[in-house]
Amino acid sequence: MVDVADTPDPGGEQAQPSPAVTGAGVQSVDRALGILEVLARTGESGVTEIALELGVHKSTAFRLVATLEAHRLVEQTADRGRYRLGVGILRLAGATTARLDLVQEARPIARQLAADTGETVNIAVLSESSALYLDQVAGSSALQSHNWVGQHIPLHATSNGKVLLAGLDDDGLEAVLGTLATYTSRTITGLPELRAELARVREQGFAVAVDELEVGLTAVAAPIRNAHGDVIASMSVSGPSFRLPEEQVEEVVRRAVAAAVEVSHRLGWGHR
Amino acid sequence: MVDVADTPDPGGEQAQPSPAVTGAGVQSVDRALGILEVLARTGESGVTEIALELGVHKSTAFRLVATLEAHRLVEQTADRGRYRLGVGILRLAGATTARLDLVQEARPIARQLAADTGETVNIAVLSESSALYLDQVAGSSALQSHNWVGQHIPLHATSNGKVLLAGLDDDGLEAVLGTLATYTSRTITGLPELRAELARVREQGFAVAVDELEVGLTAVAAPIRNAHGDVIASMSVSGPSFRLPEEQVEEVVRRAVAAAVEVSHRLGWGHR
DNA sequence: AGACTGCGTTTCGTCAAGCGCAACACCGAC
DNA sequence: GTCGGTGTTGCGCTTGACGAAACGCAGTCT
């Protein structure tokens, strides 16, 4: 057919081989997924707002959103309203965690641990330079308490994070650690101090964080290992500091370590 | 050519048993989301398999998968391996659950249930070896029972409690159960009888309690589940026994179960 | 060993699918 | 009323996505 190259290639203007900053493959899909991320960040947005954020036209954003809506990944608040993430995400997330034998094996034990201690139990893995929470079992009260699943948490200021860091070698540590942000007066911000703390964690087989991420929040964590002995995840018990005084932390640590060991066994660690 | 979405029809797109993509919208996005659904169903698939399932060419499927991978929504098992859902899904889910509150999602449905039955509706969760009532919607009748919100109620003598217990495994059951106090002559006090009753509850998907906590008080309850299928709460309809004769209980049970299922769906429970 | 078959991956020319534009319906505020 | 804002919808044009075929690599059968 006609070669309507109105804008001919101006001489040697090679197309940049990697023009896409976002690592784009299929662009419309890329944009659609961008919409999901925008909604995850903002919680709720209108079509115009989304279009602005993505740098595309309103109508484009609308069509993408409509497609996402057909799959229940987003939903609109009113008949003529803004959009937010929908339940389809949750169904996919359920399938994601169901697939992870880690979560499968850990869940009953986590539940038992939560029942024994009366506090919230979390399971986290290392992901993209932070701790990603895979699963959570609420403790005594407040099943509606804040859900951390899917959240990214700083590594140096949490018991889970310290356990995960302690499982890395020096190279891995350097690759993962960024700047050590300060959250409270007790947050470990110096690299030497952190290394010392990690050595202690490695030696004693658990980590404790009191008021390091948030004042009044105490957490203990223990490593979960795979068949090779690598630390692949961390299991934590956390609650308000007043409910977890020092003498009780010992008992909680004992239970948490035992639970983590049990999960590790189920994953094939130290068999026979 | 194909008319894109003659009518958006946001309601009737379910129950397409064939893996064929749902249709309307931006085609490539539609296919990409189809891939997510395929992976959610199969747990793990190769490019060729996905392409076959979607009815597209291998290369097309690959490009879509690669785009999804760039956003961490899928990941491949090995360097040259199959694909499965990734952690990006969990991050999105975190943003979704952040706004999902059990009480908030359940209240409109509970209100409808109360209106339909004319009786009081309660929502309870497991907390510290008893049932904690989170919310209550009064029925239409003048005869009101007192407000139970915030109260801790014995697990073995209420319909809500039995539903919550039925959601536990044996270990959890043992951890939670104390002594089975006697409230009326119909209270279940023997552990074997309770186990049998819980098995029945588990099988039929609801619980009934007549005069077990208090003479003259009848209640039915159905489980509310999260995305993993765990029983996280229980929704009950309760009223004076004389207003809930046996033949009417059937109808109330049907409504209560339907309401609980609806709430579960809003919380991401699959299985339409 | 070698041929063969399967996989995931890459390249490339073609064409229709998706894009931006602009107009639309609708709502609330000045 | 007008204006500015929203989400929504046709419509041509072109860009971006598609399918066919080739490629590199691992197993596996002969």
Tell the overall outline of chain A.
elongated
Termini separation of chain A comes to: 71 Å
CATH-assigned fold name of the largest domain in chain A = Beta-Lactamase
Question: Low-confidence parts of chain A, pLDDT < 50 over ≥5 residues?
Answer: 1-23, 141-146
**How does the major sheet of chain A shape up?**
6 strands, antiparallel
| Total number of domains of chain A | 2
CATH class of the largest domain in chain A: Alpha Beta
Amount of helix of chain A: 40-55%
Counting DSSP H or I runs of 4 or more residues, the number of helices of chain A is 9
Largest contact between chains? A-B, 65 and 71 residues
Give average pLDDT of chain A, whole number: 81
Please state roughly what percent of the residues of chain A sit in beta strands, choosing from under 5%, 5-15%, 15-25%, 25-35%, 35-45% or over 45%.
Answer: 15-25%
Question: Overview of this structure, please?
Answer:
The structure is a homodimer of 272-residue chains. With 272 residues, the first copy, chain A, is of the alpha+beta class. Chain A folds into two domains: 27-89, Orthogonal Bundle (Arc Repressor Mutant, subunit A); 100-266, GAF domain (Beta-Lactamase). Helix content of chain A is 43%, strand content 17%. In chain A, α1 (27-42) crosses α3, α2 (47-54) crosses α3 (58-70) and α5 (101-117) packs antiparallel against α9 (246-266). Residues 1-23 and 141-146 of chain A have low confidence and may be disordered. The interface between A and B is large, with 65 and 71 residues. Chain B binds a DNA duplex (30 and 30 nucleotides) through residues 1-2, 4, 26-28, 46-48, 56-60, 62-63, 66, 76, 80-82.
